[in-house]
Amino acid sequence: MNTIKEIQETLISEFADQIEWEDKYQYLIRLGRDMVSLPEAEKTEKYKIEGCQSQVWIKPDYKSGRLSFQADSDAMIVKGLIAILLKIYSGRTPEEILNNPPEFITRIGIDKHLSPTRKNGLGAMLKQINYYALAYKTMESAGSKQ
User: What percent of the chain has pLDDT over 90?
Assistant: First the structure.
């Protein structure tokens, strides 16, 4: 499995291949379309992300010391952003998630090309992923001290 840093570098390179921002948005939409959607039954308030203009859900699953995520959105560009986050952070240990900030955001320049509401939504999604990582890391620590 590639490291988070390596996956981010690959994404940065893939976005660099798209010259125009219209092409980058199309690439994001394609990533969202290719992502496995969260089942309808899982689209509950429990997994809903606050701070997003569109509907966004992120469901964590913790097994064998690793966090995996399923997610969905009703907006295609946002779903593409989620697909990127899952590609980077799903299947990782809580510590890996917490120790690897999303460098790709500024390096791709996406932070300058998203509307303020989408930018806030991306921040809320990242915050939630980090929250889950911190919660499971804390549980791990508490469990090992018993």
Answer: 79
Q: What is the pLDDT of residues 112-139, one digit of tens each?
A: 999 888 899 999 999 999 999 999 999 8
Domains in the chain, number: 1
Q: Which of 52, 67, 71, 88 is catalytic?
A: 52
pTM: 0.92
Residue numbers of the domain that contains 128: 4-144
Whether 73 contacts 53, CB under 8 Å: no
What distance in Å separates the CA atoms of residue 97 and residue 119, rounded to the nearest whole number? 20
Q: Is 109 exposed, middle or buried (0-12, 13-18, 19+ CB in 10 A)?
A: middle
Query: Could you confirm whether 133 is annotated as catalytic?
Result: no
